[in-house]
Amino acid sequence: MIRIDPRTKMILIAITLLFSMLIPTGIYTCLWILLIAILGILLGRWQKTVRTVIVFAVLWFISLYFLSLFSGTAYISLMVWLGLVFKCYPCCMMAGVVIGTTQMGEFMAAMSKWRIPRSVVIPLAIIFRYIPTLKEDWSHIRDAMAFRGISFSPLCFLKNPGTVIDALYLPVLVTACKSADELSSSAITRGIENPGKRTSRLHIKFGMADGVLLLVFLLAFVCILAINKGGSV
Amino acid sequence: MNIEFKNVSFAYPGKENGALEDVNFQIKQGEFVLLVGESGCGKTTITRILNGLIPSFYGGNLKGNVLLDGKDIREYKSYELSSLVGSVFQNPRTQFFNADTDGEIVFGLENAGIQRDVIKAELDRVTSELHLEQLRNRNIFKLSGGEKQKIAFASVYATNPKIYLMDEPSANLDTQGIGEIKQCLEKIKREGGTVIVAEHRLYYLTSLIDRVIYLENGKIKQEIDGDTFRTMDLNTLNAMGLRTNKYELPCYEYKKCDYKQQETKCINDCLSLKGLSVELNKHKVLNSLNKDFYPNQIYCVVGNNGAGKSTLLRAICGLIKPSQGAISLYGKTVSGKERMQKSFIVMQDVNYQLFADSLLNECLIGAKEDSLALAEKTLDEMNLLQYKDCHPNTLSGGQKQRLAIAVSLMMDKEILLFDEPTSGLDYKNMRLCANILKKLANKGKIIIVVTHDEELISQCCDEIFKLENN
């Protein structure tokens, strides 16, 4: 297991973003997923990484062998949907790896080294922090709905879509407002607004691993880009 | 650090509750002061003025002077104030910012830009002084409420503030968690720190208090010194709308039942658990439980964190599937799905359960066409009829809870389960809650309450059911 600088992770996200923008979906998408998977495993997040790779592989397999079984509208809508999923998959997977392996303090200190203003960093940090809370909220809301005889099943949704949406969005909104308020006030009273340079308990520095990873990702990207521009795919 | 409030008045924008009117008091360095009063009396407002959240975060118009060692509080920036005043809030779920405990403890130090070696040394100091060895390098999301609250405290303690502010730190904690917070407070008091606590539950603070400030409708009604407070009897406190100042409550005279040996006796007049076991992640949480729950009775389930209290509720109402055993209702074995239709949990955070645009509509969701009269009658029973056209979100905590109960009545649920119904409620609302539980019991409902509130138990409980780990 290795540790890398949060800034390296940010750059890797940027490269992946460029990859998704510039390279058409194809065999290179699989290659890129593999690269991200190696990164995820190196950073010690093997379980979830393996799971996301399997999901990708299944979808890829479906698109190769089963898509041709459909025809007409079903074919087109499935194809468009899968195309969209494949386009977003590398970025989402990369983001998952980065969020899952970066501690908040580390992230904020790295941003501070880059001199990114706090007015940008703090909202970002609160969003990151809110995601797991949303997950908890979600399961509570699902329980609460069950007692009222409402569920997320397609059947229930078709019968009364309005009620299902109400039962979901109001509690999410109310609890989100409350959580965000409480999170922010707790952060403010602990000096998050201090404009001075932030330090970190963890040593944040570009090291060997950072260099190697950046090189691998950049090289891979440039090669793929060159091949693509050459028109051989 | 000395604190002085001089003719302080404040109102939240667009809200009546929690306003202050011409408040004057002084707190000296090293004093331990308790702020008490009913919900909305302004005690939280005082803590928010002291940590600078008012007016910078909550807005509103602050009049008068608040002085810290003679200097006006408005002259401090939020981050300057943060090194002087440390705050611990009510909700353990939403006051940590990092996912890991180590990062959270040093969060304040990192914000202040302290050097890394110093941060490391401080982390070790806090660990040994607060005995946090077990909690180091853990995922905060996986900790219990008490442990989270302890980390919140450690994070404040690490920055070495002059003043400690606690806003209902015990609201979501069990007896054990409260004990841990109490130990932390004892430590600061010994070290000569200034402590200000706003609380509803008072018993755990009694021995520490130097002075009590009693607020009513935003004004200081009375200042009571610690020794006088310690001798006050329950009737006087209750008349002031306050909770008990002693831990000894009659509730433990109730029989504790030994649920393992006890055979279930009832045949067709109760809810009966027969050899109920529940496994979560291959870990046995409940182990062959036998227990009958009769209608017209109020059962209180107590036990430490991890003893399986909420698991029990979730198993009874069909949210999780037991690994062994059966549950029968009035003599018939009932499946999870049937139990789900017949039961209702009033959750600790009742916000998850309310989603209509008015109280009346909340009651009418899923109801039959002609239920309007019934809905109004039910709301009346819960003392909510006057708000029937209001949005549920404008209600107070206690009112929202009663609305959820009204919903369960409208749906004609037979089994009503309560998860910590009195967390964060003041004396008056706690009494109201106890009375409503009794009312529901008289209607012939089966009532099971998971709680750690000894006062609620002594008010309304018919039988205590103690769960122990495994």
TrEMBL record, chain A:
GO terms for cellular component: plasma membrane. Signal peptide: none annotated. Keywords: Cell membrane, Membrane, Transmembrane, Transmembrane helix. It comes from the Bacteria. It holds the Pfam family CbiQ. It is found in: Membrane. The chain crosses the membrane at residues 12-43, 49-67, 79-102, 206-227. It is a multi-pass membrane protein. This is Energy-coupling factor transport system permease protein.
TrEMBL record, chain B:
SMART domains: AAA. Its main location: membrane. It is found in: Cell membrane. Keywords: ATP-binding, Cell membrane, Membrane, Nucleotide-binding, Repeat, Translocase, Transport. It is a peripheral membrane protein. One of its GO terms (molecular function) is ATP hydrolysis activity. InterPro entries: AAA+_ATPase (IPR003593), ABC_transporter-like_ATP-bd (IPR003439), ABC_transporter-like_CS (IPR017871), ABC_transpr_CbiO/EcfA_su (IPR015856), ECF_ABC_transporter_ATP-bd (IPR050095), P-loop_NTPase (IPR027417). Residues 3-242, 271-470 form the ABC transporter domain. The keyword Transmembrane helix does not apply. Coiled coil: none annotated. The keyword Mitochondrion does not apply. GO terms for cellular component: ATP-binding cassette (ABC) transporter complex. PANTHER family: ABC TRANSPORTER ATP-BINDING COMPONENT (PTHR43553:SF23), HEAVY METAL TRANSPORTER (PTHR43553). Belongs to the ABC transporter superfamily. Probably part of an ABC transporter complex. Responsible for energy coupling to the transport system. This is Energy-coupling factor transport system ATP-binding protein. It comes from Lachnospira pectinoschiza.
